[in-house]
Write a structure and sequence with these properties.
- This protein is an alpha+beta fold and 173 residues long.
- It has a single domain (33-160), classed as Lipocalin (Beta Barrel), CATH 2.40.128.20.
- The chain is 18% helix and 36% strand.
- The protein contains 3 helices and 9 strands.
- It has helices spanning 3-17, 33-36, 143-155, and strands at residues 38-45, 55-63, 69-76, 82-93, 96-100, 110-117, 121-125, 132-136, 164-165.
- Strands 1-2-3-4-5-6-7-8 form an 8-stranded antiparallel β-barrel.
- A hairpin with a 5-residue loop joins strand 3 and strand 4 (82-93).
- The radius of gyration is 17 Å and the shape is globular.
- The termini are far apart.
């Protein structure tokens, strides 16, 4: 098999992994910034480049006087080093945040849907289906809360079988 054929096959396989059934209507919630504020623990996520090899992830959202939101993502690398990324989020519409970790660059903003935010569990995802997270205020949310979050993602066309789970202390890296 030629290198070109192998490359095409790999690209097609990669495109399939980020597929989301867009025929399903995404019904995002409003973005209540006060409910988003504070620290959230990552319960589950789709594998992604910027969190590869990192566990015990948290996301902290701090409302700013200018209406934007400071975002501080942190996780622990295998050697125990804390990896941090600081950025800015802004409400861009109902259920939609724009987030950038390089806000001075106009092309560095990404859209994230807030599919659910109830004070204890939050479900966020990229509109294209390549990224999704389940976040909670505590490390071990109820099994019912996790099941509801997974069902919400599935109802919106996300393939939850790809999710890495960290919802019990024994599963946390």
């Amino acid at each position: 098999m030629s290198r070109a054929t192998i490359l095409v096959v790999l690209l097609l396989l990669g495109a399939c992994s980020a597929y989301r059934d867009r025929s399903v209507a995404v019904l995002p919630a409003e973005v209540p910034v006060a409910a988003l504020a504070g620290t959230w623990v990552e319960i589950a996520r789709f594998p992604n480049v910027f969190q590869r090899g990192c566990g015990q992830s948290t996301a902290t959202y701090v409302p700013r006087p200018d209406g934007d939101i400071s975002v501080i993502n942190a996780c622990i690398e295998p050697g125990g080093t804390v990896r941090r990324a600081e950025g800015i989020a802004r409400v861009a519409g109902p259920g939609l945040l724009e987030v950038s970790f390089a806000p001075a660059l106009p092309f560095a903003w990404s859209d994230y849907l807030i599919l659910s935010l109830d004070g204890e569990v939050a479900v966020t995802a990229s509109p294209g289906g390549g990224l999704a997270w389940i976040l909670a205020r505590r490390i071990c949310p109820t099994p019912e809360a996790i099941a509801e979050a997974l069902a919400l993602l599935e109802a919106n066309g996300y393939r939850t079988e790809r999710m890495e789970r960290f919802d019990t202390p024994s599963l946390r890296p």
